[in-house]
Design brief:
The chain is of the alpha/beta class and about 240 residues long. The chain has eight helices and ten strands. InterPro entries: Aminoacid_DH-like_N_sf.
Length: about 240
């Protein structure tokens, strides 16, 4: 897929149906006037290591794994973004794209207000992609509930379960909620209480922007990705 043909990247998921990554990346490449192409394939978690190696052998320039595929794999796959630094390179470079984006985005979010992030609260099971050491203190509530006091005194709240924001106090300071829950949490209720919320769409856009930065060293305006995802999900 190198040489006389245009560069091609691959998106893997299980299931892949309903994943907006290919459609959104195609819009991004078009906005950047780049002749890159995108393929999507379904691969089962137990075949994932073979698929990653196969994509390298077949000459794909980049590879993105859906987060559900990474978390369901039992074969020790801990990265979701792969790329070659040079055409024909015989090995992948790889990172956790969600973690890479979150580390910068969280620091940028608080950059104008405070020099450091005091407290991070996790509600629900631990999410591996949350950057380690991003806050001075970290607290864990393994179920979908945390005391109003712990919520009130947190700068960042990572949610991985369905929660009841009606039981939350109003945000007394600038507070960021990052929602990894597989179900639908009430983001409007959280925002009405003064919280900034990053949910599935914000995480998707962050991951795709990170992909583009590694694959082509360029990024379009975020509105290109936002509009593409909205159009895809509206169909």
């Amino acid at each position: 897929m190198d040489g006389i043909t245009e560069p091609v990247v691959l998106v893997l998921g299980h299931p892949i149906a309903g994943n907006p990554a290919q459609f959104t990346l195609e819009r991004a490449f078009a906005a950047l006037n780049l002749p890159w192409r995108v393929f999507s394939c379904d691969v089962s978690p137990e075949r994932l290591p073979e698929a990653i190696e196969g994509a390298l052998i077949l000459g794909f320039r980049g590879l993105l794994l859906d987060q559900n595929l990474v978390t369901s794999s039992e074969r020790g796959v801990d990265a979701d973004l792969y790329w070659r630094e040079e055409v024909g390179q015989s090995s992948w470079q790889s990172i956790d794209a969600t973690q890479t984006w979150l580390e910068k985005a969280i620091l940028d979010f608080f950059a104008d207000d405070q020099g450091e992030i005091g407290s991070l609260l996790r509600i629900g099971p631990k999410v591996a992609s949350v950057p380690v050491g991003i806050a001075n203190e970290q607290h864990q509530s393994p179920i979908g509930w945390a005391s109003p006091e712990s919520i009130e005194h947190s700068d960042v709240i990572v949610v991985s379960e369905i929660v009841e924001p009606g039981q939350w106090p109003a945000a007394s300071t600038k507070t960021l909620v990052i929602d990894f829950a597989s179900g639908e949490n009430d983001h409007d209720a959280m925002r009405s209480l003064g919280y900034t919320v990053w949910g599935r769409d914000e995480l998707r856009i962050g991951v795709l922007m990170t992909c583009l930065a590694q694959w082509v060293k360029q990024q379009p305006d975020e509105d290109v990705l936002t509009e593409a995802i909205e159009e895809y999900l509206a169909v």
